[in-house]
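Milestone 3.1: sequence recovery, worked example.
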């Protein structure tokens, strides 16, 4: 699948789920924002993935942050969407 098509799907899904995450339906729907890291043992060829401008707050982790992960050489930090399917699917069915 071409990267541009993947970007469109990602953005469409992310924007839709983000609206739910920021609504009063979020707890029942099981949709929430989730911040974290993606760490790598080796520095990836592409340090900035195609979706980096679509998630919230994407950045390369600092050397100081990487000290917490001595077996890893590179990391990315960002906020994305978490979807608990055991809640989300029943919520969708009720709509």
């Amino acid at each position: 699948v071409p990267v541009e098509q993947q970007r469109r799907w990602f953005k469409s899904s992310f924007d839709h789920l983000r609206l739910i995450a920021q609504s009063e339906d979020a707890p029942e729907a099981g949709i929430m924002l989730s911040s974290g890291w993606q760490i790598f043992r080796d520095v990836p060829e592409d340090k900035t993935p195609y979706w980096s401008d679509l998630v919230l707050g994407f950045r390369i982790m600092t050397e100081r942050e990487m000290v917490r992960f001595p077996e890893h050489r590179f990391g990315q930090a960002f906020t994305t969407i978490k979807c608990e399917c055991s809640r989300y699917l029943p919520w969708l069915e009720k709509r």
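Strands lie at 31-40, 56-60, 74-83. Residues 34 and 80 are 5 Å apart (CA to CA).
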